[in-house]
Design a protein that fits this description.
It contains 9 helices and 4 strands. By secondary structure, the protein is α+β, with helices and mostly antiparallel strands. The chain has a 4-stranded antiparallel sheet. Helix 2 crosses helix 8 and helix 7 runs parallel beside helix 9. The protein starts with a helix and ends in a 5-residue tail after the last helix.
């Protein structure tokens, strides 16, 4: 037999403590699992094969061969040319230093002379080198990349898809962090003012936190199948808090309205 709404509500009220305890434990478990996704999210996210950005990226790789690698290094020296013995020894040191990174391959004109036309400058003072990681999920910060080649007599500069994505993402994430820290006190103030009470406002925030950790758990599961952007966390925070506060406000206002209609049952 179907349970009527009043009976269902009564049972929920009767078992409220076990339900709250179970919900709290479930939220803690979801938080532990979900927050593990923060270190696994990528800088690019999912890219559809039929999207315009994907087609442009592929066209750029066909036009500029060096862009096909995630990291492109520029090696140069103010006094040496690439054919000098000192330059070659410095490049050999570069190869040894690259082994400290999770790099699968290093390609340059020194190893493959056929690429000299596209990887050595006309004045022969600069040489390009490309590096590929062992896995697409490898994340190395730009300072770590430069630290790995410290002590090399060559002046080394890095660019490429991985480097630019990490640097752009770093700047955007820092800006988002500053904006969120600035707006959070304002949101808390207006939440307490709108709900006309700290307990009611805390209820909406608790719902928001539960929504966020649950969403992060789902994102981590999806991330096992495809790469999710690291900006997913900011989107989840924005939408999770917004929807939770809106829904909680609706429930609280309806509850207070019913209490005013039935003061004898309050």
């Amino acid at each position: 037999a179907l349970i009527s709404p009043p009976m269902y509500s009564a049972r929920l009220a009767y078992y409220r403590k076990p339900i709250l305890i179970t919900s709290a434990l479930l939220s803690i478990g979801l938080a532990i699992f979900g927050f593990g996704s923060l270190g696994e999210l990528g800088t690019q996210g999912f890219l559809a094969d039929n999207s315009e950005s994907f087609k442009i990226a592929e066209l750029s790789k066909d036009t500029f061969v060096a862009l096909d690698a995630p990291i492109v290094g520029l090696l140069e020296h103010e006094r040496w040319v690439v054919s000098d013995a000192e330059f070659i020894r410095a490049f050999e040191l570069f190869l040894k230093q690259s082994k400290s990174l999770p790099v699968k391959s290093v390609v340059s004109a020194f190893q493959y002379p056929s690429t000299a036309k596209s990887m050595i400058s006309n004045d022969r003072t600069k040489a390009l080198v490309t590096l590929r990681y062992e896995s697409e999920k490898v994340q190395i910060s730009t300072p770590e990349l430069y630290d790995a080649f410290s002590g090399n007599p060559l002046k080394i500069s890095f660019t490429g898809e991985k480097v630019t994505q990490r640097e752009v993402s770093k700047v955007i994430l820092e800006d988002l962090e500053h904006s969120e820290m600035a707006t959070l006190p304002v949101v808390l103030f207006f939440t307490v003012w709108t709900f006309q009470g700290i307990i009611a406002a805390a209820t909406s925030l608790a719902v928001g936190v539960t929504t966020i950790v649950s969403s992060l758990s789902v994102i981590r599961l999806v991330n096992f199948a495809t790469t999710m952007s690291e900006f997913t966390f900011n989107t989840i925070t924005l939408m999770g808090l917004g929807v939770s506060i809106d829904y909680s406000l609706f429930i609280v206002l309806r509850f207070r309205e019913e209490r005013r209609k039935r003061p004898e049952q309050s």
